[in-house]
Amino acid sequence: MKRMLALVLALMMCFTLAACGGGDTGNQPSNDNGGATDTPPADTPADTGGDPAADGETYNIGVAIYQFNDNFMTLYRQDIQAYFDAENEAAGYNKYNVTLVDSNNDMATQTNQIQTFITQKMDAIICNLVQTSSAEQIVNLCVAADIPLVLINREPPGDEKDADGNIVDETAKVILDNPKVCYVGADARQSGTYQGEIIAELPDHGDVNGDGVVSYVMIIGDPENSDAQYRTEYSIKAMNDAGIAVEELVAQVGNWDTAQGQTIAANALTQYGDKIDVIFCNNDAMALGAYASIDAAGRTVGENIYLVGVDALDECVEMVNDGRMTGTVKNDDVGQANKACEVTIELLEGNSIENYYWVDYTKVVKE
Ligand code: GAL
């Protein structure tokens, strides 16, 4: 509404001065939409790339991604940009002005970026938290500034309820109490369960060396992250639920990173050799690294070892189909990005929203 008023005033001024020459919507942050940028927009007039429609209004949206250098979040942020690009194309002008920033895996950096977005009077903020333990702080900043906030990918702690049905965690409360704050994500328990089921459903139930127990290596994303915690827990829970005896040989943090996945797998293979039946990886990027080590150790997936990941990166789906990976679980980046953008638009238009949105995972095994 404020912006409509500003626009009407600006148009009136233009007519009065009879000197209105361009597609300038006012003193808004600008971004050329040409891709990701590390720099928040300068507080200069926006280049909206043409004359806005008569009733056109430009919304400025700040998007902070925990780290650009992450395979899955790279796809996700490209999907967000693509969604708003398509909306702009359909509107015929730069209706959604998106500024993407890289938080470089540093919470202090991200907090500053959010504060900058607030100073710049962004109309909405989408945030992929560096640390979910800071969710409450980020929510409070945005709520105090009355800027809608859509949290993505990293689930803030606790939407669990006590026996009386009350939310137990303060963070969930801070989300649930705020009509302009929500989380869009996927339930990581489901992805972990699918990983375990992929192994449990094999003819030998994962016991590839036939010694009566499934001995595994767990390569963990990052310890603070609920995706990592749930995938670690629920993959093994699914094996237990299927009545399969398991033994953990190694569980180490690989920070979602291919090189670290490779090192952890290489060390485990050196230490435990043929004793290892399965390498579970919390994501595909680390599974790519683990595969390199499996290959270097002269082992063959499907014959004398199994390997599972999560995300269904294109190269991993290919590996599942040609047998170099046992399976993966599709983490629907497009589905999640589209939902996050849709909800952002609802918020921008003043419509009411839910506080939580969930997008399903799906199993990916060889056809
Ligand atoms: C997960 C994804 C990982 C990594 C992580 C970042 O959902 O599976 O690959 O991107 O998010 O938080």
Decide which structural class fits the backbone: alpha/beta
Oligomer: single chain
What is the helix content? 40-55%
How are the strands of the largest sheet arranged?
2-1-3-4-5-11
Principal-axes shape call: elongated
Largest sheet: 6 strands, parallel
What's the total helix number?
11
Quick check: average pLDDT?
87
Give the low-pLDDT segments: 1-54
Number of strands: 12
Per DSSP, what share of the residues sits in E-state strands of 2 or more residues? Answer: 15-25%
N-to-C CA distance: 52 Å
Query: Strand-and-helix sequence, N→C?
Result: HEHEHEHEHEHEHEHEHEHEHEE
Write the SSE topology.
Layout: H1 2-17, E1 59-65, H2 71-91, E2 96-102, H3 107-119, E3 124-127, H4 135-144, E4 149-152, H5 170-176, E5 181-185, H6 188-200, E6 214-220, H7 226-241, E7 246-253, H8 258-272, E8 278-281, H9 284-296, E9 306-308, H10 314-322, E10 327-330, H11 333-348, E11 356-358, E12 362-365
Parallel strand pairs: 1-2, 1-3, 3-4, 4-5, 5-11, 6-7, 6-8, 8-9
Antiparallel strand pairs: 10-12
